[in-house]
Write a structure and sequence with these properties.
Length: about 400
């Protein structure tokens, strides 16, 4: 596990947050099992190592108790009930099914389409629109309100709390007070809206039926808000950024909107919103690249695995016609993203609604990123819209 000339992965380093891909490449080549000694943090970066680790939850555990040392990085994010590997986790997945299963997501489609259309109405007035702040970032908050039965008027406040929740001060491991305040505000808000219709009512019924406790049902609501908004915003923003910057690929997609599904998968693979998931080893693990001790904190670098040249041809290229090869952007195995179908739907609808309104989109100013230890999201994506 020597790392000749390769820096260890540091999720707090802002240069890495802004572009982790050159470091991922170096790690895959020279240090597929990496270790940041000061942070006491191990990393796996090759697809052939990350994929099996995601499936081996007996060895690479995401038990909330075991993960508590990660609080420095993740704050409250992983400390929910959904993170556990226990049978309780199965019960919680059951509770989520009526909200996020295929039928539920299909039912939501007309509402997602209406939201995308309304947001584009707001943007279509002027020549230049911010497709991150005005579209990618707003759409998932409104969809989450629709999913949970929360008032749309609260969307800006909810979006603000979620931003605060994920915010970290550059280079600092500690969870800042704003993030804790964001969590408390969101928690209090969900308490106040426990009697809301829609998804909140479904969660309340699960508690009434004894499938989960009241506290757990509130935790699940919080996890849905926290897990679904920034990730989906990141996916839509990054996908539109790539298409805006590449007129040739854009023309292909605009001419053949049926490519939409593949474009969403390519955006997930190429620069997915969640760059890693955290695990703790339950025993010493012998890998082809060295041994990880027991109780080690390991980041499975899914963002790197998705660019692994051993699995994907020309992995750094964004190619809307890339043949479908499964990627790890939503994780894999027991904790595979419960909201994957909804996120895919939102991204596809966002793209298709934009294609229906515009002949083309073109970059019209500097792109701004929101930097956090694990997520990829855009704050600003100014684009000139050539309206139909
Ligand atoms: C593009 C958007 C999204 C991405 C990239 C993403 C990514 C992920 C990943 C990588 C995991 C696995 C975590 C782990 O293994 O530790 C996960 C889990 C989860 N996601 Fe997502 N997610 C997205 C959208 C959503 C949405 C829209 C929702 C719900 C509204 C959601 C709800 C969840 C939940 C509840 C889990 C926990 C599943 C479990 O532990 O069994 N996600 N997500």
């Amino acid at each position: 596990m020597t790392m000749p000339g390769v820096a260890a992965y540091d999720p707090l380093d802002v240069a890495t947050q802004s572009d982790p891909y050159p470091l991922y490449h170096a790690l895959r080549e020279a240090a597929p099992l990496g270790c940041h000694e000061r942070l006491d943090l191990w990393t796996l970066s090759r697809h052939e190592d990350v994929a099996p680790a995601l499936h081996d939850h007996a060895t690479f555990a995401s038990d909330a108790a075991a993960l508590s040392p990660f609080d420095r990085f993740l704050g409250i994010r992983e400390a929910g009930y959904v993170a556990g590997d226990s049978r309780r986790h199965d019960a919680l997945r059951e509770v989520l099914r009526p909200l996020l299963g295929a039928t539920a997501v299909e039912r939501l489609q007309p509402e997602v389409e209406a939201i995308a259309d309304r947001l584009l109405d707001d943007l279509a007035g002027g020549g230049v629109a911010d497709l991150a702040a005005g579209y990618a970032r707003r759409l998932p908050v409104l969809v989450t309100c629709a999913l949970l039965g929360l008032p749309e008027a609260d969307a800006p406040a909810i979006g603000g709390w979620v931003d605060a929740l994920f915010g970290r001060r550059p280079g600092l491991a500690e969870v800042p007070p704003e993030a804790v305040a964001g969590l408390r505000a969101l928690w209090a808000y969900l308490e106040d809206h426990a009697g809301a219709p829609g998804g909140m009512a479904t969660l309340a019924q699960a508690a009434d039926a004894g499938a989960v406790t009241r506290e757990e049902s509130r935790d699940i609501a919080l996890i849905l808000v926290a897990a679904g908004i920034k990730t989906t915003s990141g996916l839509i923003g990054t996908m539109l950024m790539r298409l805006a910057a590449d007129p040739e690929q854009q023309r292909l997609v605009w001419r053949e909107p049926a490519l939409g599904r593949g474009v969403v998968e390519e955006a997930l693979r190429h620069d997915g919103p969640a760059q890693w998931v955290a695990r703790v080893t339950t025993r010493p693990v012998v890998t082809a690249h060295g041994t990880i001790r027991a109780h080690a904190r390991v980041l499975l670098l899914i963002g790197s695995a998705n660019r692994d040249e051993r699995r994907y041809a020309d992995p750094d290229a964004f190619d809307v016609r890339r043949p479908a090869v499964r990627n790890l952007a939503f994780g894999s195995g027991l904790h595979f993203c419960a909201g994957a179908a909804l996120a895919r739907l939102e991204a596809r609808v966002a793209l298709q609604a934009l294609i229906a309104r515009t002949e083309a989109i073109e970059p019209a100013g500097p792109v701004e990123r929101i930097l956090t230890p694990a997520e990829r999201e855009l704050a600003r994506l100014p684009c000139a819209l050539a309206l139909r």
